[in-house]
Write a structure and sequence with these properties.
Layout lengths: L1 H28 L6 H7 L2 H19 L3 H23 L9 H14 L5 H22 L26 H7 L4 H16 L1 H6 L1 H21 L19 H20 L7 H10 L1 H19 L5 H27 L8 H6 L4
Helix pairs in contact: 1-3, 1-11, 1-12, 1-13, 1-14, 3-5, 3-8, 4-5, 4-13, 5-8, 6-8, 10-11, 12-14
């Protein structure tokens, strides 16, 4: 049962990564205008990925409730986020607060509240989610936020006080704590209640389907769709109540689907799940390709060229992560310092 549950989570994480690869590449290589159905699909990776991070946290922490070890891993993840900012995007850290920052901070918060009863944790998550539009209206949601390039540190207009902005961290960054921390906490609570959810999986499936179809119907009927934020296609800048409903409906729809799958009868999923088992390495590698290849050398093209490029992109990620697993089995990376392997997602 435990093995199947882990395979299910790997499968969900793989779905999130596949969508993420396409969504993050699209601003650089797919010519607009981008259809609404495509933007909706691109918007589903982050909610699922953050939810899974909370789910996986609970499963691993429950087995070995070692606070020091988990805090060290959280620090490593934070260092991974800093590495991506500095060495891939060429910007100062603690500005954009992308998904790696969010997962690191959400793990720290999940550690702090781990011993609380699940109704209290669920209440905290709901407060984070419900307060999101209220805080955005009160403080104002800034659609454009300037990043400090590393080359600009020595310029005359560089202001040290602007490096860390509390508003970007909590409200209007790429992945601010509010409301996204709520997804990670609900992921942890779902893992805690996984046995009960599995017993009622049919109800979960149909309720999720109803809300998903209903939410999408309302979204398609709306006359106003959110603008793309600095070229990125996702519809959660900022996340509206309707989007949050669709996101959670999608999460539990895919979760109920994965629970019912027999992965031993669908061995082909093992080849795809290699991405889910090596999600951090895949994230870092895909950011490197986007920054140093797509953004630097390619121009937006039509749908057919984009489709061929994405097949090559995903295939390359699968080949590299498969190769990484084989290298790890042979202990070829053993001489490399552990902290470097951890930060780069090589272990």
């Amino acid at each position: 049962m435990i093995k199947k549950r882990i395979e299910s989570i790997d499968f969900l994480r793989t779905i999130a990564i596949l969508i993420m690869l396409i969504a993050n590449a699209a601003p650089y290589v797919l010519k607009g205008p981008h259809p609404i159905w495509f933007r909706i699909i691109c918007s589903l990776a982050a909610p699922l990925f953050i939810f899974i991070s909370g789910f996986s946290f609970f499963l691993s922490f429950k087995k070995n409730e070692n606070y020091k070890h988990k805090l060290v891993l959280t620090l490593y993840l934070l260092l991974s986020a800093i590495f991506v900012d500095v060495f891939i995007w060429g910007i100062l850290p603690f500005q954009t607060f992308d998904v790696l920052y969010l997962i690191a901070f959400s793990q720290a918060i999940n550690i702090l509240i781990f011993r609380l009863k699940f109704p209290i944790k669920l209440f905290i998550a709901l407060i984070c989610i419900v307060s999101s539009p209220l805080l955005e209206n009160y403080f104002g949601y800034r659609f454009t936020n300037k990043d400090f390039n590393l080359n600009g540190v020595f310029s005359s207009d560089f202001n040290l006080s602007g490096i860390f902005q509390f508003s970007r961290f909590c409200i209007d960054g790429w992945f601010p704590l509010i409301p996204w921390i709520g997804f990670a906490i609900i992921g942890s609570v779902s893992a805690e209640l996984s046995d009960k959810i599995t017993l009622n999986i049919k109800t979960v499936k149909w309720v999720s389907w109803i809300f998903l179809i209903g939410g999408l119907g309302v979204l398609f009927s709306q006359n106003v769709i959110q603008c793309e934020r600095e070229g990125y296609l996702e519809l959660f800048y900022p996340p509206t109540p309707l989007f949050l409903l669709i996101a959670f409906a999608f999460i539990f729809t895919t979760y109920s689907f994965s629970i019912k799958m027999n992965f031993h009868l669908h061995s082909r999923f093992n080849y795809l799940n290699v991405l889910g088992r090596n999600s951090l390495f895949t994230y870092i590698f895909h950011a490197f390709i986007i920054s140093y290849v797509f953004e630097s050398y390619l121009v937006p093209s039509g749908c057919l060229q984009f489709a061929f490029l994405m097949v090559a992109f995903v295939s390359t990620c699968i080949v590299l992560t498969t190769l990484l697993e084989r290298i790890n089995k042979k202990d070829y990376l053993k001489p490399m310092p552990l902290f470097i392997k951890t930060i780069l997602g090589l272990k």
